[in-house]
Design brief:
By secondary structure, the protein is α+β, with helices and mostly antiparallel strands. It has four helices and eight strands. The protein has a single domain, classed as 2,3-Dihydroxybiphenyl 1,2-Dioxygenase, domain 1, CATH 3.10.180. The longest helix is centred in the first third of the chain and has 11 residues. The N terminus is likely disordered.
Amino acid sequence: MWNATLPASPRECTLILIMTSAQPPGLFQGLDHFAIVVPDTDAALAVWRDQVGLPFLYSEVVNNGTVRLTHLDLGNTHLQLVEPLTPEHPLQEWLANNGPGMHHFCFKVENVDDALTQSPIPTAASPHQGTRGKRALFLDKSATQGVQVEVTGE
């Protein structure tokens, strides 16, 4: 919305800026978490919870017992510790090649099926189980300049 008259005060200018910069909600509804892959959740908690001071939120074993996902509170988002639990899990190879470290960030979406069909970025695979009954889906990282991006929702 454009306003043809100049505002009378700086406060009015701020209000006009807020009103004109509003955008309708999109598919991606903000950041859900940052994820780091770790070989041992307890050792990672000794760093991120005990030394850094991030509050523990919850931990779940998902995907048929193949991975442990542990969430810590970052204030406005979560840090997710991802520990592969089986020797054949693909993240075991990732750990062998890269060591513990940043793996992906994750957007919130209302519905993962909608993300699968409506995402402006191609998806890399079919949905998988996330935490707390949510589902998740990775985007094709060749379309995100090599950055691993996940989406999660119902």
